[in-house]
Amino acid sequence: MSKELKVKIKPFGFLDLLAFKNLVPTRKKIINSAAADLIEATPPVNVLSQRLHPKTQHFVIEDVTFETPSAKTYRLVPDEESETNELAFFRPGQYLAFSFKINGSTVKRPYSISSSPNEALKGYYDITVKKDEGGFVSRYIWDNWDKGTKVTSSGPEGHFCYDNLRDSGKIIGIAGGCGITPFRSLARSIMEGLLDIELLLFYGCNKKEDIIFYNEFSELEKNSGGKFKIVYVLAEEELEGFEQGFITSDLIRKYTDVEKKSFFICGPQGLYKFIGKELAKLNIERKYIRREVFGEIKDIDKYDGFPQEASEKSFEMKVHIGDDSATIPAKSTESLLVALERAGLCPPSGCRSGACGLCRSLLIDGNVYIPKDVDGRRMADIQFGYIHPCSTFPVSDLEMIVPREA
Amino acid sequence: MVTNDYQKEYDALVIGAGNGGLTAAATLAGKGMKTLLIEQHNLPGGFATSFVRGRFEFEPSLHEISDFGPPEDKGATRQLLEDKIGLDLEWLRVPEAYRLIIPNEKGGRLDVTMPFGKEEYISKLEEYVPGSRPYVTDFICLCEEVVNAFNYLAESKGKADKSILMDKYPNFLKTASYSLQDVLDAMKIPYLAQKILTAYWCYLGLGTKQVSFTIFAAMFYKYVMRAAYIPKYRSHGFTVALDKRIRELGGEILYNTKVEKILVEDGKVAGVETSKGDKIKTQFVISNASPHLVYNQLIYPKTEIPEIALKTCNARKVGFSAFVVYLGLNKSPKDLGINEYSYFVYSTPDTNDIYKQFHELRRPTGQATVCLNNAIPDCSPEGTSILYLTTLYSGDCWSKVEPKDYFELKNKIAEEMIDEFEKALGINIRDSIEEIEVATPATFANYTGAFNGSIYGYEPVSWDSVLPRMMCMNDEKYIQGLEFAGGFAFRCHGYSSSLQSGETAALLTYKNFMEVKNSEQRIES
Predict the structure, then answer these.
(1) How far, in Å, CA of A93 to CA of A184, rounded?
(2) Most distant pair of Cα atoms in chain B: their distance
(3) What interhelical angle do B234-248 and B19-30 show, nearest 10?
């Protein structure tokens, strides 16, 4: 029911009804006088997004360097034949997820970029791979990657990065073994002036000969004007100039106070567990602890909540992927993602740590075990029965729907 | 030439599982059509999703859904999701309409908190602007007439009776071709009351001098009368439920698959081809991707692109993209001094100036900021809170950003927004940031492939507002069998409009599908 408006609306009258009648003719006129050009070029923001987040990057290995007898650095340059003309810029601490075809299965593995973002602009990424860490894929890389080998990865991924709005400008880095690689990127970024922060790095190794980037770090430390300092902690050797033992809270306090400093931790799972307990003694606020993704769990049967009756068992898993269905074996001690890959089913994956959600799948039937600290699922996904196969372990026969690879 | 080596056939195919695509697919499947929904990402929702950082699950885009209402007085969007599609989810009412802060308003700082409800709203405004009651009452009355007129037009399905329009909705006809500012001025609404009434302008992404009055009126009225709601588990909570419902209704969904071509023969949809090499036959496509993407990139062969479709694209202006700072804070909202759910902070008083400034890569002058815990107290662990600060940018002003400057730039702008919010409220949040993520136009472009990163559809200026779009709907159907859903469809952008647009597109498709089917049967017999 139209109300007779008390306020006299002066400019509204007969002409306005005409304006209403003219709405359609006006629209038609505007449309008809527009250009009929086809916009064939990708819009500029979409171009920017593709440069920042390429779905895939193709490389040729330009060089291979031995860092230690058991660690090699691979220098990757764009493979222009495969239409990669520039490398995506990144933030120190990010990783690339590489794709491999090994024995008929397609697998992906994340490796941190060990060079600096400025070096990406110059045309290369370095990744550093230790022979014995990370299992069969690292071994595969050692045996198969050489100068001239063509390899493929994702764009830069991951959130193990310094953020000036969140983190302290004074960083305490804790690295174990091959977990040193993102810190080289960070240290170089500090030296190159990309980041105006200080890094005190505790680096745990078994022996001096296992230290990766030893000479480079010594050099960086000398030239950093106090912005970069490194403390080597050797578990199995006692040497002058090196700490002996493990990275304990006492050792950290020996070198620094911890008030309002950000901890960045990267290394094998044993290190995370150990450091977690040590930092608890220091009463560090959660916001000051950043941890790189956990990696695939290899000792799931040692977890508290793991149903022991399932241990050592193998189950049947019915999988629907794309238009295909298959029934495959799944061992209780291996993630569902590994079972899918072993069966050659090419599931999508990314971080392999429960976080990124690229492998997200729908569990239709069956029981699984998901350790709490790698359960990165959305709340509604938990409610609707979705799982991340990379951090999920079978404890019964099961059935699930897996999206086909992107 | 289009060949006939199709692998599969569907009655209808939906491109994109955003809000409009999901409701379209659910409606088609509900009508018994053999339906396939294809989505390039591995999740449903498009921008209506969620993401996890540390112990926080963030809402990427939704501030509040309008036209929803409580269970006992359902708005059109709640009716669609619950009664027509059959979702059964928990939705929470947003506690207040908004708190509006304009630090540099003429005559001093404006800081008002407005409630939902007609009487409550009018009375509160009278408190802030004494003497405004009769003007604001008339304004809301006019908005009601606009909403009723739209409802009448929708019911009449393009066959509106002019005499009924003249008789029942004269003020609608009078105001339909004017901007919001024209109407505010014509009604002589006091200046400060105008400022308070127009706070929602940024949801439409056009200043008061440009935005069509009727579309603003409809949005404003629905918020004030029916309040606003949000889903308990972020937008992902209802989009994952829609995914489930579509499959229950017999629809199929293909994720990680991108439609690369819409095959057209003699002006009619014939099928689609995907990035995975699927070639699928169908006569009906509903696109949640924009006409800009469809006509410029997807129609195949290119000779089938109607010239008038390109003209229509080029005549219209693609709306804004967004810049959002997502914060996981390690203090409760109360401890931080954040007491409201929805804030509009405009550091430039005139909406038309802010609109212009959104076209420059500069310190943001307007933001819409939400503290999720003030509607969903347990959305994050006890003693923490989720806050997200949103501003708008045209895609074009980001077009010259180089990747090497990108991360620094985004944190610089994020810091400026945090600073602006802290100053407006006189609080500190910077020291409590436990998690931060920043989305830019490039992020939105990356996530859905949206044209130039736009999160809004076409700008609803007077000639391209909902009303002229409705009046020209039949004339602007350029390819037979192709409908659009989502923020670029005729209802304009916003969650409610996008969700409802999917239903409309599906019903039109169903009608055409039945006509084709019936005529085929007639031919057979």
Answers:
(1) 9
(2) 78
(3) 20
**Could you tell me which chain B residue has the CA closest to the CA of A24?**
B468
Residue A37, token pair as written in the block: 């050009």
Number of A to B CB contacts under 8 A, please give it. 232
* B233 phi/psi in degrees, rounded to 5: -110, 50
- Report the alpha-carbon distance of residue B343 to residue B113 in Å, rounded: 9
Contact B450, B290 (CB under 8 A): yes
3-state SS record for B8-66: EECCEEEECCEHHHHHHHHHHHHCCCCEEEECCCCCCECCCCCEEECCEEECCCCCCEC
Contacts of B406 in chain A (CB under 8 A): 48, 52, 89
Tens digit of each residue's pLDDT, chain B (525 residues)? 445 678 899 999 999 999 999 999 999 999 999 999 999 999 999 999 999 999 999 999 999 999 999 999 999 999 999 999 999 999 999 999 999 999 999 989 999 999 999 999 999 999 999 999 999 999 999 999 999 999 999 888 767 888 898 899 999 988 998 999 999 999 999 999 999 999 999 999 999 999 999 999 999 999 999 999 999 999 999 999 999 999 999 999 999 999 999 999 999 999 999 999 999 999 999 999 999 999 999 999 999 999 999 999 999 999 999 999 999 999 999 999 999 999 999 999 999 999 999 999 999 999 999 999 999 999 999 999 999 999 999 999 999 999 999 999 999 999 999 999 999 999 999 999 999 999 999 999 999 999 999 999 999 999 999 999 998 988 999 999 999 999 999 999 999 999 999 999 999 999 999 999 998 888 776
Helix axis angle, A181-191 to A214-223, nearest 10°: 30
Q: What is the reported pTM?
A: 0.96
Calpha distance B13→B413 (Å, rounded):
40
Q: B186: which chain A residues are within 8 Å (Cβ-Cβ)?
A: 9-12
By the 10 Å C-beta count (0-12 exposed, 13-18 middle, 19+ buried), B508 is classed as middle
Min distance A189 CA to chain B CA atoms (Å):
13
Residue A374 vs residues A136, A178, A377, B139, B385: alpha-carbon distances, Å: 22, 21, 9, 54, 22
